[in-house]
Each structure stands twice: as C-alpha cells, then as structure tokens.
C-alpha cells in the first residue's frame, strides 16, 4: 500500500494544511485528517530539508511510513536528521533513483496522447519508482513508439514500466436498466433523524439522471450533494427510485474536471453530512452504492490518469481502490468509515465520488476508480 500526495512534493504542505478537524456544526463543509501519529511533523520536515529533486515520494507499507529519498551524498546526513525529527512515527527511509517530481512530469507529458497510444492508465508509482503504462494493445511496436515519443522530448525512458491491460476494460458504472437496490439507510438511522420534519434524501439512494441510474453520493452540507458526471451533458433532471422528479444535476466530466455532478433537490435536506478528506493510498475506504450497498477496501493509487470514455479527454488526478463496484453505483460516496459509523457519530470524511470500475466479461476485476472530493465545488 502506498501514500501518494495528489500532485508532488511541492504540494505536500498545502494539502495537509487543508486537512483540519471536522466542525461540530453538521451543515458546514470541512476537511479532516487524523494527525495523532505526528505525520504532519514528518511532512513539514521533508519540506524543510529536501529539494523537490531529492524527494522520491511517500507511502505506507503496512503501518510503516516509507519516505523515498533520491540517491545522493547527503542521504546519510539527512536520514539521521529525519530520524531525530520523526521519533514519534514509525518511519523508514529508502533510496531511489528518480524523484517523484520527474516521474509525475513524464506521466503528465504522456497523458494527452493516451488515446493515440491506446494507454488505459498512467501512474507515477512511488513504490517501484517507475511510471506504470497500462496498454490496451500490448506489443513491441506500441512500446517502441511510446519510448521514441518520450525520448524525443528529452524525457527518460528507463523508468517506463509497460503493463499488458488487454484482458480487462475500464467501464463507467452507470446503469441503463434499473438495477435492484436493496440498501436503505433508514434501517440504521438514529430515531431523532428518522423523525425529522424535513424531507430528506440519503447518500446511497438510487436516483435517475436523464436516462441513467446512479447513486446519490456524499453530502458536504444539508443542501449540497454530489453524484457522477458521466452519461449526460450540461444539466439534466433527477428522479428518485419511484420515478418522481425531485431536482436537477449539472455534469462536470473530462480532463482535470474528473467525473462528478452537483445535485440540487427541491425543498429537501441531504443526510448524512460529512467533511472532505484527502485520499491517501493505503487508507481504508467504504463505497456506498445503490446497487452494491456498502463495500470496502483500500485506496491503491492516487493522482492517476485514466482513459475510459473516448473521445473525452483522459481523466486526470483520479484515484483507484480495491473496493467492489457494479452498474448503478456511479456517484456513490467513498468514505473513511462505514455508514453505520457515519450516521452514529460526528466523525468521518468522504474521499471522493465513484466513477468507474475494471471489468472482465461483465464481472468486476478487482479495481474501482473515483474522483477525489478536492475536485468538486
């Protein structure tokens, strides 16, 4: 398992500084990050003691925080310094050849030509210190062409790691035939919430946007909720599972926008309200989908580029996890806690919004994709 910051070394401080405790006021948007283990101190020390070209990335290996340092004559001195600073955290330092900044720059260079070279996923992999290039058509000619294109623009090709991705397909998880939805959050709601005089719509509920069946996703306030943005353009009507018109949605899809929609419901509240959280590879997550109900797993990749629905531009800055998903789960919230914990406590955050899954022969093949909550507004 790895922790990758959403962009690179230079953004570590900005990202972690934004993760403050959830407010007790449930209607307020907030960010949350558990820093009881002193990880913020380690990140601050990295920023103070390393240049961008010396930092090779950061991730978790079990409960151990791994910090990659680019090989240099200063490695031993910096290692000793960091051990003194991070005495409260289980940290291990590893030497790598390339900085995460260099890997990310190469990944970003290749992203605009993903469809041209039949690339499905690009990932600057901190664990292997490589750029993983997943190919829909894995052959020597394609590999040579990508290497030549990369080298012609003065990028290193030694760390390109080509992976055969021809047996599986990345598919958006919207359903166009109404799926069976058995999840009902009311079964686990506190009594005072059940008896609320206000009409409420719940995260995990099945909704129809245009002609597609989606999941009502995370709510950042009682009046602001989200779902997926694929399958329709601009604004579209939103219907509940009975077919009653209840509101509208506006789509944001493609490129840096990722895949999300803002959902406006007429004269109603959303429940439960959660804060924003920064998705870090290795975090435990819970996906709440109208079709699958609650599934769980871990975040496996962050800040990846995905080519899912040509001719749209590849989705950038996306995340992946090994939680199960199915058709009709699009828009579902990716949470830090189970739904039981979310409705019975004031803690817990959302990491993002369900977008797509990896399938083989119509069967989920082990990886799902979501838009980080930092992209929505």
The coarse overall form would be globular
Low-confidence stretches: 5-37
Give the tally of β-strands.
Answer: 24
The strand line-up of the biggest sheet is: 11-10-14-15-16-13-12
The percent range for helix content is: 10-25%
Specify the oligomeric state.
single chain
Mean pLDDT figure: 82
Which structural category fits the helices and strands?
A: alpha+beta
- What kind of sheet is the major sheet? 7 strands, antiparallel
Q: How big is the Rg?
A: 21 Å
Q: What's the helix count?
A: 7
Strand content: 35-45%
The termini sit apart by 29 Å
Report what the structure shows:
- There is one protein chain.
- By secondary structure, the chain is an alpha+beta fold.
- It has helices at residues 12-17, 39-49, 75-85, 100-110, 140-152, 191-194, 339-344; strands spanning 31-32, 55-61, 64-70, 91-96, 119-125, 130-135, 160-164, 169-172, 200-202, 206-209, 212-215, 219-221, 224-227, 235-240, 245-253, 259-265, 269-271, 275-277, 284-289, 293-306, 315-321, 333-335, 349-360, 363-372.
- The strands form 4 sheets. Strands 11-10-14-15-16-13-12 form a 7-stranded antiparallel beta sheet, with no helix packed on it. Strands 19-20-21-24-23-22 form a 6-stranded antiparallel barrel. A 3-stranded mixed beta sheet has the order 2-3-4, with helices on one face.
- The chain is globular and about 60 Å long.
- The chain starts with 11 loop residues before the first helix and ends in a 5-residue tail after the last strand.
- The relative contact order is 0.15.
- Mean pLDDT is 82; it is low at 5-37.
